[in-house]
Amino acid sequence: MIGQTFNARIVSVSDESAQVMLPNGTSAVLPVAELVGKTRAVRHDMLSSLHSQVGSELACEVIDVREVDGQTVTTVSNYAVVRKQRLAEIAAIKTLSEKLAVSPAPFQATVLRVDNERGFAIIDLGNNLTGMLHVSGMIGDADTRNAALAATAPGDIKTVIFAQVSERRGRIRLDLNECAAA
Asked: Which of 1, 42, 73, 143 lies at a C-alpha separation of 20 to 30 Å from 62?
């Protein structure tokens, strides 16, 4: 049963957990620590929001089954389900980005935002993908590149080419280089 994902029905909510019912009739506990959220406060807000959702379903993965005082206690996680979904999305994006990088050809793309302090622009690649154009990947010497980045604004069109696909802290990174406009 551990590792299986179910749509669990929310039965009740307390200060630190929610009781859920798995489709097979097993009662399980969903601790606040196993909800999605970067901070404990965010996870507690999520738990509080479940009060209004009693009776509805929430995707959960069974992460533990143990005997406590002669009773079987099943623990589930919503975070584990979301994490697996995110990892699958990252894998799909990485596959798509690697296909794009195999036969690099210059293309035009729109600047979404610029961070002059850290020296890069985020470029919209379409298909929910973004790439990073670092100042070092821009055309010209250092002074020319720095001036070009300072003059870059959201909405500008840049001619770029894929330089590298990498993974960093669970995120896919698409590095771009600027090309001379055709």
From this structure: 42
